[in-house]
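[job 0412] stage=complex_fold ligand=flavin-adenine dinucleotide status=START
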Amino acid sequence: AAGVALRTDIVVIGAGQAGLSAAYHLKKQGVPPGKGFVVLDANPFPGGAWQHRWPTLTLSTVNRVHDLPGMRFTETTGEALSSVQARLAVPEYFAEYEKRFGLPVYRPVRVLQVTDRADHRLQVQTDQGPVSTRGIINATGTWNTPFIPDVPGRERFLGRQLHTQDYQNPHDFLGQHVLIVGGGISALQLLDEISQVTETTWVTRREPEFRKGPFDDEAGRAAVSLVEARVRAGLEPESVVSVTGLMWTPQVEAMQQRGVLSRLPMFQHITEKGVVWEDGRSLHVDVILWCTGFRSSLSHLSPVNLREDTGGITLTGRLATQVARDPRIHLVGHGPSASTIGANRAGRAAVQELCAFLGIT
Ligand code: FAD
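[job 0412] stage=complex_fold status=DONE, emitting structure tokens
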């Protein structure tokens, strides 16, 4: 493989918040870079999925990007203006972080699949060649796996359809009627910006539930433990917003005053020109923007059969990162740790448990 050690003890797949936290703790624990561990990342530059976020997502409109362990965000950004784009500021921070701690990140290297070897090792097949390893910390996030529900007629629509992942700028839709589908944080943010420049309609499956009052640590812990219970039981994790609810903020208040917050229930099918509800009502739209979320990017792990009949991957260990069916593999930034703070903690727990399991350091 081009520059990749062919044989190592631990491969970290992905260099987002979760992968970098794991790499930091491996280094701190004395696992030697290269021979002891490598990080493989498919992106061309540091920054994980943040480098792909839409330009209007700024440091004031993200919820909160937690510091990685051992170095503050403000060390690269200074007291960054809240108008700074997240897709620029976060990658700058990650780049500096990788350099400061000498983390062995190889990029762009895409992991294609992970298979079992006869000698109890795992074979990581990449687009740059194979790497043999004893353990894996998987930190591949969700950005590469956008989810769009299978609504009948989707392929017939003659207007434009796009997913949150493709979104760039509200001005792309000037003069068009945009249908925004989804009840999560991204749907709400994009509805806010697009409705300021053009006509919008908002559709959600369920009545959105707004949380009045602050989203404090206790509420965060309660939300995480709900998702954690699911993955410990071998079920697919639910979306974060389904357990946290939406925040009632001054922006949301302003949206309500502008009259853009009223939502319609989910439509039943799609036609060439728009959407139709069960009761026969229809609406012509030019654009359908699917803000319907992401799924964990795990297809490269299919050959090692981690899934249960229940559809999910049972996770165990202190923070539910270790795969019950194959303790050589940890999933971080997944399910209960799919947030910047969760990814930090999961990276540490996964390193401690995997090193203990493999008898390293
Ligand atoms: P990523 O940052 O997605 O990194 C995964 C890395 O893995 C990528 O670099 C990718 O290229 C690489 N990769 C994927 N597949 C492969 C492969 N097969 N081979 C090699 N490399 C691969 N959380 C918060 O706490 N606060 C927020 O404000 C917040 N805002 C968000 C806004 C949006 C729009 C979204 C989508 C998420 C947001 N989150 C937020 C969630 C948060 O970004 C993540 O949970 C967190 O950053 C953890 O990232 P990660 O390391 O799991 O993944």
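The chain has a mean pLDDT of 94.
[job 0412] exit 0
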